[in-house]
Amino acid sequence: MTVDWINFMPIQALIGGLLIGSSAGLLLVINGQIAGISGITSRLLEKVIPHKSSSNAAEAPVSLFSNWRILFLLGLLSAPLLYSLTFQLMGSPPTSSLPTNPASENMNLVYFGLLAGGSFLTGFGARLANGCTSGHGVCGLARLSKRSFVAVGCFVSSAIATFYVAHYLLHWI
């Protein structure tokens, strides 16, 4: 394995890690909540679309600023847009990490299919593990949770196996 020294950005990675860690810590200290994206999203959806058997069915409708989960997800979704806009204003657009193959006209469709399939499997895995990489990896490991150590081990093993199959066996990446 080689390091892509041209696109290696340790300072940005350090700043991003500090922002993620401090925001997860603040959410835990201030709200007593774990910053797990799958849990935040599912609990928000339970409030917006209550299930018949759910105890949340009698709650008032969710307003934009009364629910921290909406603001959290809006911040999460807007961050890449703000990042891209910042680089455009500075005159140096960020590089794309998506692989390209100009010889094939169908590569965009292939990548979309891979993205859609990977998204489905990620959601399924997050549901199966009762949490996602942000909840287990950032918050669970920091709390020394045994369950999170097992979950992160499964996540990392699956990622390594997926990369190996996609890169070395199927030559997709």
What do these coordinates show?
- The protein is mainly α and 173 residues long.
- The protein has two domains: 1-95, no CATH class; 98-173.
- It is 65% helix and 0% strand.
- It contains six helices and no strands.
- It has helices spanning 10-31, 37-48, 68-90, 107-128, 133-142, 146-169.
- Helix 2 (37-48) packs across helix 3 (68-90) and helix 5 packs across helix 6 (146-169).
- The longest helix has 24 residues, at 146-169.
Attribute tags:
65% helix, 2 domains, 173 residues, cell membrane, mainly alpha, 6 helices
In total, the number of domains comes to 2
Main sheet record: none
The parts where pLDDT drops under 50 for at least 5 residues are none
The helix content, as a percent range, equals 55-70%
Topology as a string of helices (H) and strands (E): HHHHHH
- Mean pLDDT, to the nearest integer, reads 78
Radius of gyration: 19 Å
Overall outline? globular
End-to-end Cα distance, whole Å, is 14 Å
Going by helix content, strand content and strand pairing, the class is: mainly alpha
Number of helices: 6
Oligomer: single chain
Protein name: YeeE/YedE thiosulfate transporter family protein
Pfam families: Sulf_transp (PF04143)
Transmembrane segments: 6-30, 70-89, 109-129, 149-170
Family: Belongs to the TsuA/YedE (TC 9.B.102) family.
